[in-house]
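Report of the visiting student (M.T.), summer placement. My assignment was to run the structure pipeline on a short list of targets and document each run. The first record concerns Probable phosphoglycerate mutase.
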Amino acid sequence: MSNTLHALSDHWRNRYLLMRHGHSQANEQGMIVSSPERGIENFGLSELGEQQLAQRVADWQWSTPTRVVHSDFLRTTQTAARVAAAFQLTPRVDTRLRERHFGELEGQGDDRYPSIWALDAQNSEHQRHQVEAVSAVAKRMRAVIDDWEQQVSGETILLVSHGDPLQILLTVLANKPLTQHRDQLALVPASVTQIGG
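After the run finished, the structure tokens were exported:
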């Protein structure tokens, strides 16, 4: 699956490929795994996820990445490693790309997501159930791009992260209210969205 968000201005110094990790064991089990304590060493890619990535790399249709940066969760680390290997790159970790923390819902069924998204649509600052606020996710995700924009130019940087953080980032980049982050097309596992450049 491919999504393209055209540069919103001429200020981009780099091109970014935003990639959601491949289908994971957490997806397979229908479970929320958002805490570093559980997500860094466990719940990596499922067999389907491995197949998705093999296909994604074989059929790569985006710009060739010059850097690969990823969340330190196992599912994103494994995704980044597969893509980086294909382009002879060394992936690096940025913890700001981590999954949104879902607080008290950790380990529960992923059928709990819609109740949080409904609250998000009312208030991007809410922290009900000790969930990380949309505004906080937006700030850390945007900071990743801002930092790369200051450090380098002319690069194609693959950022491997998670569904909610990436949708929130895309909402920020589109200058839309954060309360609308679930209004756009959901990012499926192993999808790539190109921005800038």
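The radius of gyration is 16 Å. Strands lie at 2-5, 15-20, 67-70, 92-93, 156-161, 192-196. I thank the supervising group for their guidance throughout the placement.
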